[in-house]
Amino acid sequence: MLKGRLGLETARVPHADRHGLIWLARGNLFVEDGTLRFRTAGGGDLDAGDYAIPYQMLSLIVLGPGSTVSHDALRLMARHGTGLVASGDDGVRAYTAMPLGPDDSRLARRQARVWADADGARIAIARRLYAWRLGEILPHRDLDVLRGIEGARMKETYRLQAEKFNIPWHGRRYDRANPSAADLPNQAINHAATAVEAAAFIAVAATATLAPLGFIHEDSANAFVLDIADLFRDSVTLPLAFGVARKALRDPNTNLERELRGVAGRMFRDEQVIPRMIDRIKELFDADDADRNA
């Protein structure tokens, strides 16, 4: 079996009889004589060549830049429940995903069940997410109160992280209509957040959970993706953003977005960010692969 990128070959995914995810880039994914194949010019973990892909043993294929996929390949993967995510380099962008097959909906069913219990289980999940982020279980059960506490603490976190990286900081400012108008540290945070959200998108796709059913975020079609991405704001998003911002402030010729994508990809691999997100999703709903009767 091909070694997976980003450490994903060891990630635990809902398909008990499958073996995780693989990363493919700079090649053509097609079907020949009933076999899914990938012909690549080389790059990343694969040398140039023609590879048979064991799609029936995979939960998800992450298809990177410079790649094409045939209609027959999409049909074959859909029939056998193998998901496909079109991604940027090293998972720092996520463009589209093909739904996973219907063979295991355990996590999605648990997510839908607790989400539907707005006054009980849903707020309990939100409190668990906040506990993971803030390091303590807050006694409050009102979501607006929890959001206010988190917002106040994040202001201090931004200040401390900026101080750690010796970055001038004047507060978090983001104009959705004109994101480039922000100062350089805020632009770096915007780019870093986009990268981490892409990683969370891949983790949500891999676990076949439901992106629109968020517990802290509510309005976005990717509300649950944002919930998972926020778990990594302190440990990944801000260190990534401020580290690159510091370099860009010292070297005005730095292409901020390009530099951040490269650093993000290396961080995702080195720190196993996507597998950690997958484990968090499983833990959030108390789902274990060994428990097949849930």
UniProtKB/TrEMBL annotation:
- An example molecular function term from Gene Ontology annotations: DNA binding
Q: Which UniProt keywords apply?
A: Antiviral defense, DNA-binding, Endonuclease, Hydrolase, Magnesium, Manganese, Metal-binding, Nuclease
Which intervals of the chain form a coiled coil? Answer: none
Q: What does this protein do?
A: CRISPR (clustered regularly interspaced short palindromic repeat), is an adaptive immune system that provides protection against mobile genetic elements (viruses, transposable elements and conjugative plasmids). CRISPR clusters contain spacers, sequences complementary to antecedent mobile elements, and target invading nucleic acids. CRISPR clusters are transcribed and processed into CRISPR RNA (crRNA). Acts as a dsDNA endonuclease. Involved in the integration of spacer DNA into the CRISPR cassette.
Q: Which family does the UniProt entry place this protein in?
A: Belongs to the CRISPR-associated endonuclease Cas1 family.
Quaternary context: Homodimer, forms a heterotetramer with a Cas2 homodimer.
Can you say what this protein is called? CRISPR-associated endonuclease Cas1
Gene that produces this protein: cas1e
